[in-house]
Design a protein that fits this description.
The chain has about 400 residues and is an alpha/beta fold. The chain contains 17 helices and nine strands. The longest helix is centred in the middle third of the chain and has 23 residues. The structure holds fe (ii) ion.
Amino acid sequence: MINKQIHEFPIIYTNPIPKIALGWGAYQTIGDECKAAGMKKALIVTTGLKGTGIIEEIKGVINHAGVAMEIYDKISSNPKDHEIMAAYKLFKESQCDGVVAVGGGSSIDTGKCIRVIDANGGQHVNNFTVFLDPPFAETLKKMKPCTIPQISVATTSGTGAEVTSWAAISNTKAKAKVLVSGPNVQSTVAVVDPLLSRLQPRDIAAWTGFDALAHAIEAFVTKVQGPYSYGLLLRATEFIAQNLREFTYNRMSNTACERMAWASTMGGIAIGFGAGAGIVHGLGHQISALTDCHHGRINAVMMLAGERYNQPAITEKLAALTRAMGVDTTGMTEWEAADCWFDEIEQLLEDLEITPGQLNQQFGVEEKDLDHIVKVYSNDFCSQGNAKEFNYDECINLLKSAL
Ligand SMILES: [Fe+2]
């Protein structure tokens, strides 16, 4: 009887969202959170954040809580598989029982990978990548859940990685950026503190801030976006449109720092609520894998081309985003309002001194690279969620238009 009532409606899965400590001085809770999670010795995973004093400050807080620590500070942007394995080796050799990841997505995602590797017999991280084919649900079923805790301390306002259940890493042999996941991979606690994010250099603030906007926009226009994330994403877009310029050029603005911190986590939460990402992240990942360009910057560079490609399928959604960015669209058709979105993004990019497109001049991408980029993208989650169905020739043409 019940079976007959099942309609063609997809079952929506949400990912677990960690406990979040957000606010000025939230970093001071890190030691207590380590203790509460049962850590006796934490591995601090970071890029180093040299010159900011952040790591020294956090070491003091952890020490004060009576938790011992070791540090791995050699993570780079687009974290490489060999860096992750080196961090895992140190984790085991120094007998740590928890991770404190401090930084942007690279450090936080490395922490997640260490825990996935640890839960699954110490195998190489590339064994835990999830694709569309073979189906990721089958891959995940074979994996054991993460058991060691992770405190993720965001020092950028963009990645959202502190609240997501994926890690984006570079498979250096395959020259591909891939996703790693696993049961219970989400952070135990996410610490989001504007005191830390205001210490970013200007370019990183602009690029990671644009990554947060890319999450808000892409998650909103994906075909899997649903009611859970709708309001979150519009609000995140509004916060970023109102504050990213100020945040980039004046990180002493308390309001801009706070709003960007909120927007960053809201984008990550929405992605975890089933909204996912799309072609901008999907193609951007693979351009980063080839050229090691910054994740947020490449999303900014690809945004106009990616959504022009999607535009016929997302007119109403782009119109809603235009309104969220503060444009009065009264009297416009939805198509005209959607067109305004491109003007708003173009202006924002100019204000942030980011050049759209020009992939060859800016990053050295060549026409011969496009086939590899599109083929890897075709097996990425982002291609499944994108508003327009995957089409090889159209993707090649899109990249050519941005070359
Ligand atoms: Fe991103």
